[in-house]
């Protein structure tokens, strides 16, 4: 059997959790999808799925295989769509999800420039700091400022975003200036609630070693602008992406701390659902984003 057909059948079953749903999406019979997955397991010599009459689950080997195979198929589909002369034209409505603070700083001018090149694409932009399920909520594309782990999405990295530790001069006059990351544990730190562990701040020391400090504070918020404003008014120390801090740093209302240390860096990525044929409007917008942020 065709190797890629086997892999595609497995990935589709794993993502949808059903042989019947996978058969419908792939426009194959359920028996053929079952045969393709069984052939893949036979070729690999491992069981990838546990099957019962009521549920389907992946084995440990299946989880590992899905993590790699799903991304490879998505990249191949994207490449095929880019090179195909029959790819759909960049027209229609494009629904985009993006973080609030990042979107407010950049996406107005991005969309304006994109519209000049593609006037037939109508952009619907939704700003939200929560992790949006693109497929469930009907978005064509999402922008993420994070380190991605979702193998069901195609991701293209647009830029690296550096985090900085900063505080207001008024706070430092009142509470002192930390000389090492460990001293942050004794300071008031303002925490970004949407990270997995808001009170754990990772860093790399000048000698290249990695470290982590556990911090605490009286404010936890799900928006970086709120934390930045509170820091400007002397409430405490923050760790935030540099793009949020540029104006305050230029005006001197916030100053960088521990400049010899590198803090957690994040990827700015464009992500979209893995599809057999990526719409022309999605490809056009991702290409424009890549050019803009370069």
Automatic annotation (TrEMBL):
The keyword Coiled coil does not apply. InterPro entries: LysR-type_TF_proteobact-type, LysR_HTH_N, LysR_subst-bd, WH-like_DNA-bd_sf, WH_DNA-bd_sf. CDD domains: PBP2_CrgA_like. It comes from the Bacteria. The keyword Metal-binding does not apply. Keywords: DNA-binding, Transcription, Transcription regulation. Gene3D superfamilies: 3.40.190.290, Winged helix-like DNA-binding domain superfamily/Winged helix DNA-binding domain. It holds the Pfam family HTH_1. Residues 1-59 form the HTH lysR-type domain. Belongs to the LysR transcriptional regulatory family. This is LysR substrate-binding domain-containing protein.
